[in-house]
Amino acid sequence: MSSRLADIFKDKELMARIQRKLPYLFSIAELESSRAGNVGMEVGSLREKIIVALLIYKFGEGNVETEIPVTEPEVDLKLYGQPVSIKTITRKGFAGVKLVWTVDTQKVREFRESYYPHCDILLVQINWDAEGGFYYLPLEVQRKVFREIGSERYIKLPKPGTNPRGIEIAKEALEALVTNNNSKVIEIFWQRTKIDYNPFKRWVDHWREE
Prior knowledge:
- The protein is α+β, with helices and mostly antiparallel strands.
- The protein has one domain (about 5-195): ECO RV Endonuclease, Chain A (3-Layer(aba) Sandwich).
- The chain is about 40% helix and about 20% strand.
- The chain has seven helices and eleven strands.
- A six-stranded mixed sheet has the order 3-4-5-7-8-11. Strands 6-10-9 form a three-stranded antiparallel sheet.
């Protein structure tokens, strides 16, 4: 495999660390972004930062580029100069993974006509109190599936008159990606941990500092 991301899935110590720590860290992310018991959409950005921090831990800060122009909407970082997209879903099955966050009719049409997979994907499937996983979907696997089933079956467009907030990878395509022999997975049991955590404490501490 061309990507260094595959190295994560050869490092048994790191894999065990991911299985152990990711549910805990994602629990903190939910507490950070919750209000009145409801998790806000900003949880996605916090989860992304947790995964970026994992890559910095593994590969070093100098090899992880996070200052990505807005002209590359699918790319969240570059690892050794290669683009990577981070995606998370909270569910049992494989659906609802966004390719791009737009519902503008013209942009949707343009996206469908021009889209071709162009970066590796790290996908985290969160399934609280059950099995989920941390997946690496290589670019070459995405392109293979895309060529085999075509764009109309690979891309799920938003239904007219609805507000689903984006264009998705179709369930059929995503299932083909995660089950491909060249994709990688770390299976995770998403055990919730009771955490005594105050999201305001660190900010209060800053105010207390002289």
